[in-house]
Amino acid sequence: MTTRLLPIAMALAAMTAASAARAGQDPAPPIPETAMLDDPCAGRAATVYSPGTDWAWLCRYQAANRALAGQAVDVVLIGDSITEGWANQDPGFFEGGIVGRGISGQTSPQLLVRFWQDVIALRPKVVHLMIGTNDIAGNTGPTSPEAYKNAIRAMVTLAKANHIVVILGSIPPADRFSWAPQHKPAPTVAALNLWLKDYAAAEGLVYADYHGALAGPSGEFLPALAPDGVHPNKAGYAEMRPIAEKAIAEAQALAKQHHHRRHRHGSE
Length: 268
Prior knowledge:
The chain is of the alpha/beta class. It is built from nine helices and five strands, in the order H-H-E-H-E-H-E-H-H-E-H-E-H-H.
């Protein structure tokens, strides 16, 4: 090393030593090796949606799910804004082991992504699944009736494999979407509801027909029950509640039958 470079080398060595000393006193936080973390929702606000990094919004109910640890959950209602709004408009319905896991704007593939976390892991006896409005509106991009049906089939398969009785709620009526005015959804809503009803019968599921109680003659949501044509008000949820209660009672009876059958076969 030349004498001209020696002062530079000594200065660099001193800087390195000083930096190491500071690091020992105030260590920098470790950099994660990957994006897979034990608690990926830490530091995220549960009420703030980040579509680029949490497309299915898994962080929305993660803390609420943890708070239910050790508690008996009888029924989980999972869906979109109509399910989420139900808990706000009629909180008394969500008591006695009934839990709401609705998220505004969601589609069936988003529900499928969070179905394990927000339904299966809670170990309910019954799941009430109502989704489809935003699929028809194209909220998460181009889709098809078959893609919607496949997502429903997948969630039903998961529920059945975990001994959870499924209630399929009809897609509520709509003849217009304020956020997608180019669509005329009423015929598609009717067609998918017919499939849901037939699929529920074929698979031994419970079908809750909200559409029949809420729709007008042209397939519109009755204005007195949903002023914006999509989202029920208190009067709308008041019409829906007895339909849900009847479906839940039927599903709970099926859950008991299935439990006794498994217990009997297990003891033979």
